[in-house]
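The instructor's notes for this session suggest beginning with a concrete chain rather than abstract definitions. Hand out the sequence below and ask the class to guess, before any prediction is shown, which regions might be ordered.
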Amino acid sequence: MTRFWLGGYGPAMEGIADGIGLLAGDEGAETSLSYRGAVTSTPSPSWLAQHPTLDIVYAALEGDAAVQAFARSGESALTPLGEPVEAGQYVCHVAVAPNGSSLIASCYGDGRVVRIGLDAAGRLIPDAANKAAELRAALLGEPAAEAGAPAGTAAAASDPYGDEGRESHAHAAAFLLDGRIATTDLGFDLVRIWRQTAGGLALDHEVVLPNGTGPRHMVVHPSGHLHVVTEYSCEVFTLAAGPDGTWAVVSSVLSSPIAEIGVDFPAELARTRDGQFLYTALRGSNTIAALRVRGAGEALEPIALADSGVDWPRHHLVHQGKLLVAGQRSDTISLIDLDERTGAPLGIRHRAPAPTPTHFLPVR
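After discussion, reveal the predicted structure:
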């Protein structure tokens, strides 16, 4: 059976989701994919992440400024694994380290990027002893937390463009192939590169994107290149590390030649397993833009634009040659066929109701 955990917005975030939901369909018959109800009563679990080796799911509780762990307790059931752990205002994304030692929470509201430790059983390690250092870092923009703490936080630095009217908005994190971590700051047009230390995250350097682009989400290409989609300029930037380890932009392209800036707001960026194609969703026109990856991953080419089948496509992923799309405002999901050879969307295969969906996570 094909199954996905489904993140969503609850009433506090102007949605109708009751918690983490289950989306399921019969094996080989994805057109029967349907919402099977909530498996937790979690408030607004807007982003979900899987532990790399354990049957544990982590949820960003966006309205509650916290992260919570859930253990698989049955074929299609999740049970809380400890209490929620504080992260930051409007925590909207979590990414788990490949070795399962920690997770990174990105907080849109206050710009915080928070590392939370995980124990051997996958439980979140609260960092109560380090709250004073967290607050100081958040207020002063210090690059790392107090030395010796089991988990640390790092706050946004100042706006590189010196615009006092803007605010820092951390939006996503990605673990790079060299062991460092990249995070986006949508408010300050930055991609930050971090090193993990015993005391928390240490800022290595920053990549400044053009003013007003709004870097949102990222995918790491198999080659090691980092593709970053921008919410405000409808672009996809490709970053690469130089011989000295410093990351820089190597190319950029509009997600679609007919994307309308100020009307379209890209959300997720997803890739095929082999990295040949990327897909981003344009909220506004409610379309899916497909891009071909060129060379060794350093360049992109827009190839198609298609109807997403939903209103306000907040998240999507590639699964078994199809694209699964979450419509936040239409309370629906859609399934789109993809051309295996060209990567182009072929048409909407299936639609189904789902309560304010914001994120899909395949059930392992």
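Then share the key points. Confidence is low (pLDDT under 50) at residues 128-156. The helical segments are 131-140.
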